[in-house]
Write a structure and sequence with these properties.
α1 (121-136) runs antiparallel to α2 (164-173). This protein has four helices and 25 strands. The protein is flat. It is 12% helix and 40% strand. By secondary structure, the chain is mainly beta. The longest helix is centred in the middle third of the chain and has 16 residues, at 121-136. The strands form five sheets. Strands 1, 2, 3, 4, 5, 6, 7, 13, 14, 20, 21, 22 and 23 form a 13-stranded mixed sheet that branches. A five-stranded mixed sheet has the order 17-16-18-24-25, covered by helices on one side. Strands 9-12-11 form a three-stranded mixed sheet.
Length: 359
């Protein structure tokens, strides 16, 4: 069988919350079908079905009480699952909009009061997702992925103090990433090893763009901390691109001189960066499958002799007129220097506050 990223044979099943199938929309029944997988966001499904004679047998579709799922008709594999969010019936036909189970974060108050010490954000999230699932009557068990290189944090929450999505947003500020695949929440980032190597021929349209941006290039840095300052410089073909980094507290970095040198390693070269426009379409025969297209997985992307590692942020599948396409959004994986990633202090770079800082 010829390899394809995603099959056109996608069956949408309408069911009760407990899983009893009420109706199936075969590929020939569908006008358009779009569904997604997102990073740290609720993914969506939209189905449009034209008028057919047998639709009189359809039950009244009730949001939250009815669910939809998408199945790979070639392999009988579950691709997407979640509760109906909205349904519209008109002379044109039927439209169904659904969300993945993470939408219940917006319909659940923070379920427990607890304090964690030096915990991975994914461990904390697991202890919040489980009581949410129990309270909402969901038969699901989150998949927890511990980041071996991630930081550990102290955290606390109070039951009923705020909605759970707000508590999870606070965990996101500590580095939590999550997604949902085939109705199963995945808490934590995917393993860091790359899934596949993709080249220019694996994308359709404008595809990969090569960008050389010198707006953040410096090769001479002065780091100022209370009572001390450190200077460092590396050669750059005769250029003299100076900057100043101000830190409010010396404790903001582990070692000022080492942080300055690390900073220059990152900023003292004009890099050739690869850029993929949001929603770039994968070639149908690209060497990757829909089962591998899970948000936070990593890929090596190559073009014009430049190769960089990128992380998948989202994938959207569109099916219409007998064909299916997969659109991806990826971001470059960058090691952020300690001087840039330091939080909790006002830092200036070149006389201006760094992004996210206030005066």
């Amino acid at each position: 069988m010829e390899h394809r990223v995603i099959t056109d044979s996608q069956i949408v099943a309408l069911s009760t919350k407990t899983g009893a199938t009420l109706y199936e929309f075969r590929p020939s029944d569908q006008e358009t079908l779009t569904w997604s997988r997102e990073t740290s966001n609720v993914s969506t499904l939209d189905l449009s079905v034209p008028v057919r004679g047998d639709h009189d047998r359809l039950p009244a579709i009730v949001p939250w009480l009815h669910w939809v799922s998408v199945w790979d008709g070639d392999r009988d594999a579950l691709l997407w699952k979640g509760p109906v969010f909205k349904s519209v019936v008109s002379r044109r036909g039927l439209q169904i909009s659904a969300r993945d189970p993470n939408v219940y974060l917006t319909r659940t108050r923070t379920p427990i009061t607890k304090r964690w010490d030096a915990a991975d954000p994914a461990w904390i999230a697991d202890e919040l997702w489980r009581p949410m699932a129990e309270r909402q009557g969901l038969d699901m068990r989150p998949i927890v992925l511990t980041d071996p290189e991630g930081d550990r944090f102290d955290f606390h929450c109070v039951a009923d103090e705020q909605m759970l999505d707000q508590t999870v947003k606070e965990l996101g500020n500590l580095g939590l990433v999550y997604t949902c695949v085939a109705g199963a929440p995945i808490l934590g980032p995917a393993p860091r090893n790359a899934v596949a190597l993709l080249g220019e021929g694996d994308f359709i349209g404008d595809g990969i763009t090569i960008v050389r941006d010198g707006s953040q290039t410096f090769n001479d840095v002065l780091v100022r901390v209370p009572g001390d300052e450190v200077r460092d410089r590396v050669p750059l073909a005769g250029a003299n691109l100076e900057t100043i980094v101000n830190l409010d507290n010396i404790s903001d970095v582990s070692n000022v001189a080492r942080a300055a040198r690390q900073y220059l390693r990152q900023t003292s070269q004009v890099r050739a960066d690869l850029d993929l426009p949001t929603g770039t379409t994968l070639h149908p025969s690209a060497p990757v499958s829909i089962d591998e297209l899970i948000p936070t997985t990593r890929y090596w992307i190559t073009a014009e002799g430049v190769q960089q590692e990128m992380r998948l942020e989202s994938v959207t599948v569109d099916r219409a007129a007998g064909s299916a396409t997969g659109k991806v959004t990826m971001t470059q994986v960058i090691d952020v220097p300690e001087l840039v990633e330091t939080e909790g202090t006002n830092r200036t770079l070149g006389g201006q506050l760094l992004p996210g800082q206030t005066s």
